[in-house]
Specification:
The longest helix is centred in the last third of the chain and has 21 residues, at about 395-415. The chain has 14 helices and 17 strands. By secondary structure, it is of the alpha/beta class. It is globular.
Length: about 425
């Protein structure tokens, strides 16, 4: 960017304030803006109230160069974002004929469509229209009074897709060069540790730059460079990325991937290997996460959720006497789970997980105790985890899955599994 543009994301919707819907739009937009060098200074959430929304817009006009709104573009009486923003900047709402015709054609599909849907085609005069390929409400952008205003629909799938397809190219016109960013994903070190390792370097850097970010159960280090061309920016980043990889070593599980399972599927593809899973406390989450990735069926043979002791014995063939003696949450049972599911499914790798996600313990182990295992034809590894009794069930389950995938990643790359 030719200057440091301060941005405010204004999320509109009473459902956000009530907690009925999580505001993932602001999170996703902030992450995407950071990758193109745009500073997000404020997140504001306001309900579907015209006066309060107008007040928030006045504040945003005073402190932000770019105002991005999400939500309030639909057909109902409480969808007032366009009206309030247009009035705040002295613009009229006019009918966009292309969007109007598109909505009319949508009716011809025979779907339920009421006349109030046509208000979605009313847009600020002179605006750039972002056609909604993923829903009905178009987005738009305009510049007025030295400010840039961007309005996006609220549903996350529509908002995220429209931002990527329309807003990022729109914002490029403000740039006086190319900004390139890469994310190095890290598991096994926290954000504060990564920050401490690179703090002096980050404070001394201007271009390229580095910044750590905490993610759910792992973290990332984002490196960014600006140059006249993308190729020049990439060249500037190469030594930085090499330095980070050398310093962090085996804790880096991938670059520009969204999660550790995405890195694992690439390794399974390289090695022409497949795996299967036996899960207890994760309740199928390991299988579910992997099968969210397109092409997963080529590398995942299947899994079983053996939540009870009876299921462990009946479905996996684990000796009930072993379960009785050692307990379901044990090194021995985790080992059996990985080995037996691998044999039953005929996979190259078998993984298992058994533990206590809470809120109740078993009288022997505290909540957060989990055993994760990985078995191949040659060897089996078991790791005992203690995540803390204060952790939530969702955290314990996801972190256990991350450890399973990290064990797979280590095995497939020739690192020590434990």
């Amino acid at each position: 960017m030719s200057k440091a543009y301060d941005t405010e994301i204004l999320s509109v919707g009473t459902e956000l304030l009530l907690g009925h819907v999580t505001n993932t739009d602001a999170r996703d937009i902030s992450e995407m803006l950071s990758k193109i060098g745009v500073n997000v200074r404020y997140h504001t959430v306001v309900g579907d109230n015209p006066q309060r929304l107008e007040d928030c817009v006045k504040v945003a006009k005073e402190r932000a160069d770019i105002i991005i709104t999400t939500g309030g573009l639909g057909p109902t009486c409480d969808d007032l974002t366009k009206q309030i923003l247009a009035r705040a900047f002295g613009l009229e709402l006019v009918r966009n004929e292309a969007e109007y015709q598109g909505l009319y054609e949508y009716i011809q599909t025979g779907r339920m469509f009421t006349p109030n849907n046509f208000q979605q085609a009313m847009l600020p005069e002179g605006c750039t229209v972002f056609h909604n390929e993923w829903g009905t409400a178009p987005g738009c952008a305009f510049e007025k009074d030295g400010k840039t205003v961007i309005m996006l629909p609220g549903p996350p799938k529509e908002c995220n897709a429209m931002f990527r397809a329309c807003v990022i190219p729109y914002l490029q016109k403000f740039a006086d060069g190319e900004i390139v960013s890469h994310s190095l994903r890290i598991f096994g070190l926290g954000e504060s540790t990564v920050d401490q390792m690179f703090r002096d370097e980050m404070n001394a850097m201007t271009n390229p730059s580095m910044a750590p970010y905490a993610k759910e159960c792992d973290c990332l280090l984002q490196v960014t460079a600006k140059a006249e061309t993308r190729e020049e920016a990439e060249e500037m980043l190469k030594p930085v990325i090499a330095h980070v990889r050398e310093k962090l070593g085996e804790f880096v599980y991938g670059m520009d991937v969204e999660c550790v399972e995405e890195a694992v599927i690439g390794l399974l593809r390289e090695k022409h290997m497949r795996f299967s899973a036996a899960e207890s406390c994760t309740g199928g989450d390991i299988a579910g996460r992997f099968t969210e990735i397109p092409g997963a069926s080529e590398f995942f043979l299947g899994g079983v959720v053996t939540y009870t002791n009876e299921a462990k014995a009946r479905l996996l063939g684990i000796d009930p006497a072993l379960i009785e003696e050692k307990g379901a949450v044990s090194f021995e049972v985790a080992k059996e789970m990985a080995e037996r599911v691998r044999t039953l499914m005929g996979s190259d790798i078998g993984v298992g997980v058994t533990g206590l996600a809470g809120p109740d313990g078993d009288g022997v182990h505290e909540v957060g105790t989990v055993f994760v295992s990985l078995a191949t034809a040659e060897q089996t590894w078991v790791k005992e985890l203690h995540m803390g009794a204060f952790r939530t069930r969702s955290f314990i389950r996801r972190m256990a899955g991350n450890h399973v995938y990290d064990m797979m990643r280590r095995y497939l790359t020739g690192l020590n599994v434990l």
